[in-house]
Structures are given as structure tokens and as C-alpha cells.
Amino acid sequence: MMVIPYGVKQSYEELFMKINPLDAAAASKNKSKDVHLPSIDVNFGSNRILSGASLTLAHGRRYGIIGRNGVGKSTLLRHIAMRDVPIPSHITILFVEQEIVGDETTALESVLQADVWRDILLREEASLNAKLTELEAENDEKRFDDARDEAQTRLAEVHARLAEMEAESGPARAAALLAGLGFSEADQSRPTKSFSGGWRMRLALARALFVKPALLLLDEPSNHIDLNALAWLEDYLQTWAGTLLVVNFTQFYSTKSERDRNLRKEYDTQMEYRKHLQAFIDRWRYNANRAAQAQSKIKILEKLPELTPPEADETETFKFPETEKISPPLLQLNEVTFGYTTDKVLLKGINIDVGLDSRMAIVGPNGAGKSTL
């Protein structure tokens, strides 16, 4: 799970606290988590993507952003995630855009560390308890009483915050999320660097779901996880308490295609009806017996809305120079076996011949070795 900042590279914790400061979360009680921005501008470099646009998100609703490639869907999400548009500061935001960077941290620990507030408060709790233990060992009773009262007051506040965010059940919740996304108990103890890109994308999703932000932003999640994980995610999000904003490029094309078909059908039907009316008018307009009917048809024709056929998408035309054909095969693999470690072989006995006319698709679950191949 990563939000892309502009310019300076920051750690996940620094970026999380910059976007979701702890004091803002404390002030979020009894505040509306709806978003209503009457006029926003969004730029990508020197290009203006949105100008004077309005954005309204009712808390707890699910929203999809659809549109063709390059119109600025992901850019809008990044601007929201970085608060480059004025989202109220008490609304927590997380943007799942790409897989996490793998390291020695286990999958389970990675999910637990995603909730930076929980992590900071747990560290403060440990520090305060250590301080109280240290004070008890001193002989200065007055200093002990004053410092103890201060530490205990703060410790009570920390405990209240941790209880509010259900920190104690964190490991169980994290394990359940990972299990839902397909991580076995053994997988949860593996270092994150040992997972493929698809599995690290699942980790990014698990981390975001664990944090439970008020506003969750997903950028085409179906591009990065397999069908089993996607089915689980869809079921899980049915009961998501926060607001969900998802970019969906595939849905744009299915929706647009259906809409264009309906518009074309409506247009063709009206054109036939216009043709029928006009033929009646032309035939009977000057006939004394049918003139009234002809006038009635003229009025109907005049009241018909002007429909236009759906516009075709803009296309670009490219020309490439002719080249000499390459002798086959372009690529040949004979009994290829590969693994990153000797105890876990990903590919075994692969035989492939690729020619100029080959059209091939590689399908399989996350971690099967598709990208490796």
C-alpha cells in the first residue's frame, strides 16, 4: 500500500502521519465524514484535468470512477490521497495503488505495522510503563509522586485510545484478513520479500483493510489480484463501514458499450419513426380528407427530440516501416526449470516455441510464476 508523494521520498510512517495526523483522528468524534467539495481543480503537470468540478461522497457509500485511459482517474485519486483537494482533516484516507516493497518483515507484522496510530500508541504505552517501573525504583518520593501522576494520566489516555481502536484484537484481525486473501498460517510468518508481486499486492490490500480508513481508495484492484482473492475482496467490502472509491477501467468499457448500443437503438428507432411520419405527411398533406391527420403528424414530428448517434471514440493512426521477417522460432524454451531457491521451484519442464504468428496468454493464480516466466 503506497501513496505516491510529489518530490521528497518519505517512509510509510511519515507519509501516513502527514496525511492522517493522530490529533485529527482524536477530533473526529461526532463529526460528519461526508465529503462535499463544490469546486475543485486537478492538474497533471501542465495539463488541467478537472476545472471547477464538484465532488460529493456520502459516508458509507461505494463509488466507482470510470473512464478511458488517460482521462485522469488515478490522478484524481492521488490528489485526494495527498489532500491536494481539501478533504476534511478528520477523515482518514488510504490509497492502495501498488504492491508493498518486500523486506524481512513477516506478512503478519507488515499488516500490524500498517496502522501507524496503533503502533505509535503501543510504543508509547511500553515507554510509559518502563518509566513508571524506573520511578518506582527511585527513592525520591516527591519526584516519584509528581511524575507518576503525570505518567498514569497519559497512560490512561493511551489505553482509552487503544481500546477504541481495538488494538488488543489486532493480531487476530490481521491474521483473519490475510487468511481471507489466501495466506496460509505458514505464509503469514514468511518475510514479505519472499512473495511475488501479486501476493504483495494482496498484502497492500490487507494492510489498508486492517487500518479501516474512513475513505478507502482502490485503483483497479482487479488488475493485480487473481479471481479467488477478488471474490473474497468483493464479499468483504459488502460490509465495509467506510466510504469506498474505486477506479474501474474495465467497467467503463462494458458500461460505455452497453450505453452506446442503447443510444444507437434509440436513434435508429426514432429515425424509422420520423421516416414513417414524414411519408404519411408527404402523401396526405394536400388531401382534403386526410389534411387534419397530416397536420397532427406534423405536430408530433416537430415535438420529437433531436437525437444524435453515439460518437465513435477518437483513434490514433500509426505507421511503422516494413521489416524483414525473422526466421522462426523467435523464442524457444526446452525443458526449462526455474526457482528463486532450490526448495521452491516455480517452473518445471517448460517447453515453448514462439513464432511470428503466435498469440499466447499466460494465466494462473498469484505466485504461480507468470511474471517470473
Task: Summarize the entry for a quick read.
The chain is an alpha/beta fold and 373 residues long. 43% of the residues lie in helices and 15% in strands. The protein folds into 4 domains: 12-113 and 169-247, Rossmann fold (3-Layer(aba) Sandwich); 130-164; 251-303; 328-373, no CATH class.
Number of beta strands:
8
Largest sheet: 4 strands, parallel
How many domains, in number, for the residues?
4
Output the CATH class name of the largest domain: Alpha Beta
Q: What strand order characterises the main sheet?
A: 3-6-5-4
Kindly report the CATH topology of the largest domain: Rossmann fold
User: Could you say which structural class the secondary elements and strand pairing correspond to?
Assistant: alpha/beta
First-last Cα distance: 25 Å
How many individual helices? 11
Q: Under the CATH scheme, which architecture of the largest domain would be assigned?
A: 3-Layer(aba) Sandwich
Helix amount? 40-55%
Q: What number is the mean pLDDT?
A: 82
Beta fraction of the residues?
Answer: 5-15%
Instruction: Tell me, briefly, the overall form.
Output: flat
CATH homology superfamily name of the largest domain: P-loop containing nucleotide triphosphate hydrolases
Low-confidence stretches: 1-8
Order of helices and strands: HHEEEHEHHHHHEHEHHEE
Rg over alpha carbons: 30 Å
Domain ABC transporter: 35-292
Protein name: ABC transporter domain-containing protein
Pfam families: ABC_tran, ABC_tran_Xtn
Organism: Hermanssonia centrifuga
